[in-house]
Amino acid sequence: MSISRRSVRILGVASASAALALGFAGNALACDISEFSAEAACDGANGVIHVTDNDASGTEATVTVFLENNGSDAKQVGDAQTVKGSKEGVTITFAEDWQPNAIYRVHVKAANGLDKDLGKLLTTPSKACETESPSPTPSESSPAPSESATPPAESDTPTPSATESSSTAPATTTDNAPSPAAGSSNLAETGANSNTGMIAGIAGALVVVGGGAVYFGMRRRGASNGS
C-alpha cells in the first residue's frame, strides 16, 4: 500500500505541531528569573535576607547575594546556596546584619542555562532591626533607699538638754506675778532708788546742825542780855 503525497504532508504538519507544543510546554516548565524574589527582614535583633523560588518545575538553582556600593560589589553575603523551587515557593535565608537603605544584588544560576540577576536590586528598609533591651537586674528594678531618706539614729531620742528644758519650768517666771510699776522701773533705770538713803541722811544731818546752831545762838544771846 503506497502513501500519497497528501498523507505525507499531513503527517509532517502534525509532527511539527507536536514538536512546537512540546517546546512551549518545556519552556513553560523551565526555571525563569521572574520566579525568584528577595526580601530584607529581621529575625529578632538580627538582619536576614530571604530569597524565594517559585519555580514549579523544581529546577535546581544556585543563589548568590552581594552587597552593592556605588554600582559595584562590596562583598558577598555568606556562601552561595542551592534551592529547588515549587509552585508554593521555597525560601532560603542569608544571615546579614544589613544597614538601613543598603542595596543588594541577587544572582541566580540554574541547570537549564539560566544565569541572571534579579530584575530589581534589593533595598533594605529605612529602619534597622531593633536590639533587644536586657532585662533589669534586681538592683536596677528596686533601688536601695538613699542615705538621705534614712533619719539619723540620734534623732529618735531627744537630747538631755532638750528634755530638761522642756520638763523644768524657769524659777524666775510665774504667770501670776504682778509686773513692776512704771515708776520703780524708771527709778531703777536712772539710779535714783540707790541714792535716796544718802540724800535723806545728809538732810537729817543738816537739820541737826541747824538746830544746834539755833540753840547755841539763843544761849549766847540770853547770856549777853543777863549781864
- Largest sheet properties: 6 strands, antiparallel
- Strand count: 9
- Helical content stands at 25-40%
**Portion in strands:** 15-25%
Named at the architecture level, the CATH assignment of one domain is Sandwich
Q: Note the total helix count.
A: 5
CATH superfamily of one domain: Immunoglobulins
Spans of at least 5 consecutive residues with low confidence: 20-28, 162-167, 181-185, 187-192
> Outline, from the CA principal axes?
rod-shaped
Task: Average the pLDDT over all residues and give the rounded result.
Answer: 75
CATH class descriptor of one domain: Mainly Beta
Radius of gyration: 63 Å
Helix-strand string = HEEEEEEEEEHHHH
Structural class: alpha+beta
The name of the CATH topology of one domain is Immunoglobulin-like
Distance between the termini: 231 Å
Give a verbal description of the structure.
The chain is α+β, with helices and mostly antiparallel strands and 227 residues long. The chain has a domain at 33-123: Immunoglobulin-like, CATH 2.60.40. The chain has 5 helices and 9 strands, in the order αβββββββββαααα. The chain has helices at 5-29, 138-141, 160-167, 182-190, 192-226; strands at residues 36-43, 46-53, 60-69, 72-76, 81-84, 90-95, 103-110, 115-117, 122-123. The strands form 2 sheets. Strands 3, 4, 5, 7, 8 and 9 form a 6-stranded antiparallel beta sheet that branches. The protein has a 3-stranded antiparallel beta sheet with strand order 1-2-6, with no helix packed on it. β1 (36-43) and β2 (46-53) form a beta hairpin. It is rod-shaped, with a radius of gyration of 63 Å. The chain starts with a helix and ends with a helix. Residues 20-28, 162-167, 181-185 and 187-192 have low confidence and may be disordered.
